[in-house]
Write a structure and sequence with these properties.
The protein has one domain. A hairpin with a 5-residue loop joins strand 1 and strand 2. It is of the alpha+beta class. The chain is built from 1 helix and 4 strands; from the N terminus they run E-E-H-E-E.
Length: about 110
């Protein structure tokens, strides 16, 4: 069975109406066999709790040498970190215009 995941996966998480957060998932080749949408949804659920705390919490100081934090779930664990970037990402919001129905004109015979 082929997986939709590879060793390098990029997704974009919408964190507000106009902001996205790029999420890059690195997987080892041996982990591709068990990584699936259910595990991915569990990771997203964990990140929903982590992201607000990280953005509202204190900044790491220069003396903190750890590059990443570890999240340990019941079925898996992952390392994560946030880094500043100058890359801008845009969201294209597509609004479908409401179509007005044309009323047929009745022509008297």
């Amino acid at each position: 069975m082929s997986s939709i995941y590879s060793t390098y996966n990029i997704r974009y998480l919408r964190i507000s109406e106009k902001q996205v957060l790029p999420l890059i998932i690195y997987l080892r080749q041996e982990n591709l066999s068990w990584f699936n949408d259910i595990i991915f949804q569990e990771i997203l659920s964990a990140l929903q709790r982590i992201i607000p705390k990280k953005f509202l919490g204190k900044k790491k100081n220069a003396s903190d040498k750890s590059l990443s934090d570890i999240y340990r779930g019941s079925n898996f664990q992952f390392a994560y970190y946030f880094r500043p970037t100058d890359v801008k990402h845009s969201i294209l919001i597509k609004n479908m215009p409401k179509l007005k129905t044309l009323q047929e004109e009745t022509i008297p015979l």
